[in-house]
Every structure is written in C-alpha cells, then in structure tokens.
TrEMBL record, chain A:
Keywords assigned: Lipid transport, Lipid-binding, Transferase, Transport
Stated name of the protein: propanoyl-CoA C-acyltransferase
Domain Thiolase C-terminal: 239-358
Domain Thiolase N-terminal: 19-208
Native source organism of the sequence: Pseudonocardia ailaonensis
InterPro entries, per database record: Thiolase, Thiolase-like, Thiolase_C_2, Thiolase_CS, Thiolase_N
EC number per UniProt: 2.3.1.176
Top-level division of the source organism's lineage: Bacteria
Keyword Protease included in the entry's annotation: no
Coiled-coil region: none
Residue span of region Disordered: 283-303
Keyword Transport among record annotations: yes
Enzyme class: transferase
TrEMBL record, chain B:
Family annotation (PANTHER family): BLR3430 PROTEIN
Biological source species: Pseudonocardia ailaonensis
Domain ChsH2 C-terminal OB-fold, first and last residues per copy: 95-146
Cited Pfam families: OB_ChsH2_C
Identification of the protein by name: ChsH2 C-terminal OB-fold domain-containing protein
InterPro entries in the record: ChsH2_C, NA-bd_OB-fold, Thioester_dehydratase-like
Bilayer-crossing regions: none
C-alpha cells in the first residue's frame, strides 16, 4: 500500500523547562490530528525519544485521551523520531494498521546543563568523548585533507541561522557573519559555539495513512544502523552509513540526488551538514563547503538544505528532531512554508542520523523521500 | 532526579541488590555493599569499558583481540569480532601509531577538567583507538602509547 502523510504538527522549539512533556507532546499531536482531519484517534502510535523516562509514551498520550491502542517506544539516538516515522510507515504500508501516529518528544533542558553527558558504559563516553568532540574529529580531518575550509564550515551556520529568521517555531535565529561564527567561543577545536546545536525541548508528530488526494506521498523510507568504523574506513565518522541509507532510499523511490528540490538533514554541527550533503550525493566530494558558501544550498539556491534553520537553529530535541524535519518538508511540499518556502518544491528529502556508540559508524540513520500532492 | 544513575546499573549490581534485599530481615535496613552505593552516587559502573593498556617493549600495548576468521583487529576484549562475528583470540597492539584526527575539548564534562586533548590514533598494524593527548596534536603526528590504568594515553614521539 502506498503511504501518505495526512497531517503534521510541532510544538515550539527551545529551552522550555517550565513545560513538561505532556504539554509539548499535546501541542504537536493536537496540531497533527487537526491537520489530518477525521477522528481524533489513531490505530497505533510509535513514539521516539532518547532520554525521557520509562513509560513516557503512555504518560503523555493518556493525557490527551489516546489510550487502549498499541503504543510502542523506540530509541535510535538522534534518529529516534524518524525511526518512529519509519515504523509507522511500515505498519501502514503492510496493512497492519490503517492510521498511525508517529510522535517524537524530548526535554533536554531539565536533563543536562550543557552538552549531553558522555555515556559512561561506552568506552569512548567513559574516555570523555563528548559528542561535539566526535564531530570535531571529522572537521579536523577534513580541514587537514583540504576538503573544507573554516570559512565554509562557518557558511553552514550563517545560512541556517538566516533561514530560521523565517521560522517562528525556531529556537533562535540571527544574521551572523562568518567572522562572528568563527569568533564565537571554542567548544571542541575547530568547532565554535555557533557551529553547535543548542539544548532544546520540543515535540513533533505526523499522522500516516493510505495515499489520498492532497496528501504528501511517502516515496521511500530507509533505516540502517552503522557498520564498524575504524582504521580501515575511507571516510570520516558517519559518512558511510548516510551514503548507504541514502542510496537505499533513492533506489526504492526510483529517484536520485538531482531530483531533490529541498532537504532537511542532520546538522547537529556544521561539519555534519557538509558530510551529509556529500554522502547523499547532493554534491560531489569536496564540493559541499563550496555549495554552502556560494548559496547553492541556501534558500533561493539550486538545492536548499535545512530551510527550517536545521538542528543548528530550529533546535535539536533529540527524539523530536526527525519528525520536526518531516513536518518542515511536508509544509514545503504543500507550499505552506511561508517566508522560507522553496518555490515549486516537488521532491523533499529528510535525513537523520544518530551516534554515540563507539566503533560504529553511527547508531542509526533514516532517510525518507517525500513527494508533493 | 537523575534517571541516568539508574540506567547505568549493571546486571551484576542489580543481582547484588536483589540478593541484599532477599537477605534482609523485616524491620532492618538492607545492607548495601559499597560498590553498589558507589554506583548510585557516581553514575558509573564497576566494569571499565575502556581499552586496557599494558606495559610492553618501547611503551604501552593495547590488550585487544584479533579475529581468527577474518583477521580484523579490535582494541576491546569483546566476546566476538565486531566485523564478522567470528571467534577472537587475545592480541596486543602498539606501542606506536599515527594521529588520524584530534581535538581539544573545552566544555565541562563530568569528572574532567577542560581543556583536554583527544585523538583517534591508528596503531601500527592495530586498530584505531581514542586516546588522551594532553594538549593539541597535529594530524599525522607519530605517537606512543603510555602504559597505565584508566584513559588510554599517548605521547608524541620526539
């Protein structure tokens, strides 16, 4: 069965310690159900979250009268929201359920004072490898290889913060210069503060069902977990799992990177967007930094990337991020993205990847290709 | 309430807690063994997941594993090969290697004092390991493992 996104919704994104996950989840689900139309219920729910307490899915859903149906909670690091989307899609595609809710939720501001605490049961977490440091390793390597310049890294931050000026749900935005980005506080060399995503709270949701007129069609969804990443790997961390997942999604959709009109991808750090842009094939090797700098991947450019502001600027509530990306692409493909609309966008792509388990090239990556009604 | 402190309880710790509760008498407090208490207080498990570096000729050597099926090397004493699932045998790697990439962490991390240097080091004929470097080191630098407990450490070869 061909699957469509019937409705999407999100909370505001930002530090919202005064709200709890019930409030954030309701904002997203209420909007998604209204947007989808029809009954205020679904046949099953998949919930993606990383750090929320046990039982959180049922706890937030019972507060809005969604009880009794199958509820499943999934965790796949930063790709938890899109993992929920992938599973909801599969449930509809196979006919297991008719109308399924995918919900992503996360409250970071009450769990961490700053960056995510490295996981002490993991070798590299126990060794003090905070996530900014993992991405910094990729940035250092690409700078060494001459595959990117500091100004090109900064251009990603400049671009995405400028995009978010048109997104009222974004955590923050701004007209920064490359000099301001590079001059902001050093977090993990060479990544400065404005090259890192903020600590965010939020929720995002999508209602999926059979294809119907006016709905955004899901052309394909692919989900993979990383293979070992080690001394034999030709590429920086995360590149190969994104490349493999993207290739699978493009093949299943019968499309290629050149067909993508607009993309939301995992820019937890500036280097992440550039590695992903190349891994997905939107640019050739060594071309992603130039594309960011020249405006090719900016709004108004040939292939805009992260029109919402991305994780860097819209914010990155881990479990919610993937579905926030889906919501943005659905709005883009329906022509409802306001001041950040990519004119005439027909094919949209969402990519999310999450990591943290050492020796693996990412815990998981999800890529989905969506098509305008 | 930090739920992560509970999330990192090992199976061993849980079984010890269960046994301690079984042994307790009504009206008396459950006797908590010190490392169980430490597990709650510190948020770390008793098992150290980091690679073990032993003293060897010319510096430290990582006590890891080599796959008997595919030959893949690994810095960890894991039960099977992460590449192919094959059987593994003990193997030592080092002491010399080359810095693949590096950074200096400048943000607070629990139990650590920033700034501190980290590098991915490709050991000669061995796996890639994450190592502490003290300060900044350039990509391509030759380094030597320093034997010791805890963090894997390297020093630049003069």
């Amino acid at each position: 069965m061909t699957v469509a996104v019937h409705g999407v919704g999100t909370s505001h994104f930002g530090r919202q310690p005064g709200l709890d996950l019930v409030d954030l989840a309701f904002a997203a689900v209420d909007e998604a159900l209204r947007n989808a139309g029809g009954p205020r219920t679904v046949d099953a729910v998949w919930v993606g979250t990383v750090f929320a307490p046990a039982g959180v899915a049922q706890r937030v859903l019972r507060a809005m009268g969604l009880t009794g149906m199958p509820v499943l909670t999934v965790e796949n690091a930063c790709a938890s929201g899109t993992t929920a989307f992938a599973e909801a899609h599969e449930a509809v595609r196979t006919g297991r359920y008719g109308r399924v809710l995918a919900l992503g939720i996360e409250q970071m501001s009450t769990a961490f004072e700053g960056a995510i605490t490295p996981e002490p049961t993991d070798p590299e977490g126990r060794s003090g490898l905070a996530l900014p440091a993992l991405y910094a390793m990729a940035a250092t390597r690409w700078l060494h290889e001459g595959r990117v310049t500091p100004a090109q890294l900064a251009a990603v931050s400049v671009k995405n913060h400028a995009h978010a000026l048109h997104n009222p749900r974004a955590q923050y935005s701004g007209s920064f210069t490359a000099e301001e980005v590079l001059g902001s506080r050093m977090i993990s060399d060479p990544l400065t503060l404005l090259q890192c995503c903020p600590t965010s709270d939020g929720a995002a949701a999508a209602v999926l069902g059979p294809l119907r007129p006016g709905a955004v069609r899901v052309r394909s969804v692919a989900l993979r977990s990383g293979r070992p990443w080690n001394h034999r790997s030709e590429n920086v961390w995360g590149h190969d799992v994104v490349r493999a997942t993207g290739a699978e999604a493009f093949e299943a959709a019968g499309l290629g990177p050149a067909d993508v009109d607009v993309a939301e991808m995992h820019d937890a750090f500036t280097i992440g967007e550039l590695v992903t842009t190349e891994a997905l094939g939107l640019t050739g090797p060594g071309e992603s930094g130039k594309a960011a700098e020249s405006g090719r991947t900016a709004l108004g450019g040939e292939q805009p990337v992260n029109p919402s502001g991305g994780l860097l600027s819209r914010g990155h509530p881990l479990g919610a991020t993937g579905l926030a990306q889906v919501a943005e692409i659905v709005w883009q493909l329906r022509g409802e993205a306001g001041g950040r609309q990519v004119p005439g966008a027909r094919i949209g792509l969402v990519e999310t990847m999450g990591g943290g388990v050492s020796v693996l090239d990412g815990n998981a990556c999800v890529v989905t290709v969506l098509e305008a009604p | 309430m930090d739920k992560r402190r509970f999330a990192v309880l090992s199976d061993l710790t849980v079984s010890r807690l269960t046994n301690a509760v079984k042994r307790s008498r009504p009206g008396r407090p459950v006797a908590l063994i010190p490392d169980l208490l430490f597990g709650f207080m510190s948020g770390v498990t008793s098992a150290d997941p980091r690679p073990r570096v032993v003293a060897g000729e010319g510096g430290g050597r990582v006590a890891g594993r080599r796959c008997t099926a595919c030959g893949e090397v690994c810095a960890f004493a894991w039960p099977a090969c992460p590449e192919c699932g094959g059987a593994v045998e003990p193997a030592e790697f080092g002491p010399l290697g080359t810095v693949w990439s590096a950074t200096v962490v400048r943000i607070p991390v629990p139990g650590r004092t920033p700034p501190y240097g980290l590098a991915y080091v490709d050991l000669d004929d061995g796996p890639r390991v994450l190592a502490h470097t003290g300060g900044p080191v350039p990509v391509g630098a030759r380094v030597r493992l320093v034997p010791g407990d805890g963090d894997v450490e390297v020093e630049v070869v003069p």
